[in-house]
Amino acid sequence: MPSGEGMIIDFQQHYTPPALFKGDPNKATVLLDARGNPAYFLNPQLADLASHIKAMDHAGIDMGVLSCGVGFDQPNLAICRQINDSMAQAEKDHPGRFIGLAHVPALKPDEAKAELRRCVIELGFPGVVIASEMQGQALDVEALRPFWKTACDLGVYVFIHPLAGIINWNLMEADDLGRMFGWEFSLMIATIRIINSGLLDELPDLKIHFSHFSGGIGRYRGRYNGFQQRSKWGTAQVKGHNRQPKLPVDYYLNNKLYYDCAGWAGPDPCGPLGADWVKYGLQELALSQCVFATDYPQAIRDPGEVKDYVEACKLLDPNANALVHGLNAEKLIPNIKDRVAKRKK
Asked: Distances in Å between the alpha carbon of 186 and those of 93, 215, 228, 230, 238?
C-alpha cells in the first residue's frame, strides 16, 4: 500500500454519475451546443469508475481527485447534491482511491454556503470546483464574493476548470476552436481578472487551483506585465481597465495560485504524450505551485497512454519527477497521506 513520499495523486479526473451521463453508453460522442459547436466530449468512461481504477493501477497512480462536468456551472442545487453524494459514494466504494470535490450553485450564496458546508463537514471533501465563468459572468463579479469567502472560511481549495462551452465569439465557430483555444483563453482571463480584482488581497488564505497551467498563461508574461503598465498604455484613468493588485501579477502567479499540468490534447507530435506541454509549463510557473494531473478519461483514455504520460513526465527533469510524486499535494489536501493510507492492499 503506497504512502508518504512517492505517492502519485492525479488532481484532475472527471467522473459523471451514470444517472447524469447523457451520452451513448456504448461509444464516445461529442456534445454540441445550440449553435452546433463542440462543447464537451461524452466519453462512456466518464461514468465508469472501474476504468479509472484500471488506468490508475496500470500507471501507478494512487488516488484520483474527481470532478463532474455537469456540475462546473450548475445552478440547480438538487443536481449538485446528486453529484456530491455520488462522489462520496465513490470514495466509500473504493477506499483510498478517489477524492471527491464539491459542486455548488456558486451564484446562489445561501444555497452554495449550505451545500459547501455539508460537503466539507459531513462528506469530508477538501475542495470545490467551478467553471472559468459562471452563468456567463466573470469570476471576479461581486455576486461570487460570498462563495469565495465561504471557501476560504472553510479552508478548502477552489478548482477552476474551463467551462464546458465556447467563448461567445462567432469567430470561434469553426475548426473546434472553442475547445482548442477558447477553453485555455477563458482560464487566462479568469486568472488575470481574479488577481486584478483584489480578491487574493482581501482573502490571503484563499487557495485556488487553476487547471491546465492556467491555460499556459506563463507564455504571455511579456504581454500581461506590459499591459499592467496602465499609464504607458493609456488606461490609468479608464474605469474597468485601470485595476491594479497590491503586488505585481507575477507575485500572485508564483506564490498564491496553484496549477495542474494537464491541458494537452495528445497524442503530442512534439513530444511523448504531453511531455513538452509539462516541460514548458514548469519553466513558466513555479514548481512550488504545481500539482500532477492527467485529465482522465478526456485527454487520455487508454491505460497504456496514462502510463506512458506518467513515465514521460518523470523523465523530463528532476522538477517534473518531483511534480509527479506529489511534491505539493499536501498544500491543497493537508490529510492526503491519511487518505491514501485507507487504500486496501
From this structure: 35, 8, 19, 22, 23
Average pLDDT over residues 130-135: 95
pLDDT tens, position by position, 86-119: 999 999 999 999 999 999 999 999 999 999 999 9
CB-based contacts of 27, cutoff 8 Å, min separation 6:
44
Helix 275-284 to helix 303-314 angle, to the nearest 10 degrees? Answer: 40
Q: Which of 110, 120, 117 is nearest to 88 (CA)?
A: 120
Task: From residue 271, give the alpha-carbon distance in Å to each of 20, 233, 267, 276, 316.
Answer: 36, 38, 9, 5, 10
Please report which confidence band the pLDDT of residue 56 belongs to, taking 50, 70 and 90 as the band edges: very high
Model confidence at 4: pLDDT above 50: no
Q: What is the pTM of this model?
A: 0.94
Grid cell digits, residue 133: 465563468
Alpha-carbon span 166 to 30, nearest angstrom: 14
User: C-alpha grid cell for residue 173?
Assistant: 465557430
Residue 128: which region, alpha, beta or left (left: phi > 0; alpha: psi -120 to 50)?
A: beta
Composition of the chain by helix, strand, coil, percent to 5: 45, 15, 40
C-alpha distances in Å from residue 168, one per residue of 39, 135, 173, 186, 212? 12, 12, 9, 11, 21
Domains delineated in the chain: 9-341 (3.20.20.140)
Q: What secondary structure letter does DSSP report for 20?
A: G
Contacts of residue 138, defined as CB under 8 A and 6 or more positions apart, other chains included, come to: 189, 190, 193
